Structure formats: C-alpha cells, structure tokens
Amino acid sequence: MKTKLTLMLVLLIAVACATQHNSMMPNGSASLVGRVMTVDRRAPGVNVSIIDEQLRSRMTITDAHGMFRFENIPAGHYTMKLELGGWPPQTLPVNIPENGKQVVDAQMQPAVAAAVVASN
Fold first, then answer.
1. In this structure, are residues 101 and 34 in contact, taking their beta carbons and an 8 Å threshold?
2. CATH, range 28-107
3. Angle at 106 between CA 85 and CA 100, to 5 degrees
4. pLDDT in tens, 42-52
C-alpha cells in the first residue's frame, strides 16, 4: 500500500512538472540551432536561454562542441541570453520565422578591464 501511494505521488509530481514546462512557452513548429565560441575555441557548458515577448523562456546547455538546439518553438522575436562562468552574460535579439529554422553562431566576449591612469 505504501509503495503504491509513493508511486502515485511521484507520477503526479512528474505530470505536474511536465505540464508546467509546457505552459511556460507553447510548442510551435520552428527551431533555433547554433554554436557558441569564445575568442579562441568552442564553448561547452554555456547556459543558453531564449525569452519571448511575453517573458516566457526555455533553456539549454551547449554540448562539448559548443552546439545548442531548441526544437518545436513558436515563431517570433526572442532575446537570447548566453551565460558562462568567468564571462560576462551576453544578450542578442533573435527572430525565428514561422515553420523555419534559424541558425545563430555567437561569440562570448571577454570582460573589458577599465584602466585608470593617474596624472599630476
């Protein structure tokens, strides 16, 4: 009895989580794929987020080759945000066509160090 109750609770939580994810951003028929690089190499482990005009979002992480993919997303205007430890976050606008595939190759930009020069 206790095992069945535990199993039912786990299934209920799983269904609730799946429903919540789908309600955050509806499915569509477009895709967004691309690669993230640093100045001199591909960038694995970058958090890539897309945020639509209603502030709904999806997130993925780049693979060992710096590649990312979002499938079944609605067409529209998005803000893509790239985050990687030790690098400043990057944002860029992305326009995804209806039933289309948008390819975006992005390069992480290092932080610019400000130099202070003292003069007499």
1. no
2. 2.60.40.10
3. 125
4. 999 999 999 99
- Using the structure block, give the residue that is written with the tokens 């060992």: 64
Q: How far apart are CA 78 and CA 31, in angstroms?
A: 12
- Sheet holding 57-61: strands in order across? 57-61, 47-52, 76-83, 90-96
Do the beta carbons of residue 108 and residue 82 sit within 8 Å?
yes
Model confidence over 65-78: pLDDT tens digits? 999 999 999 999 99
DSSP string for 59-91: EEE--TTSEEEEEEE-SEEEEEEEE-TTS--EE
Residue 65 token pair: 């080759």
CA gap 5, 1 in Å, rounded: 6
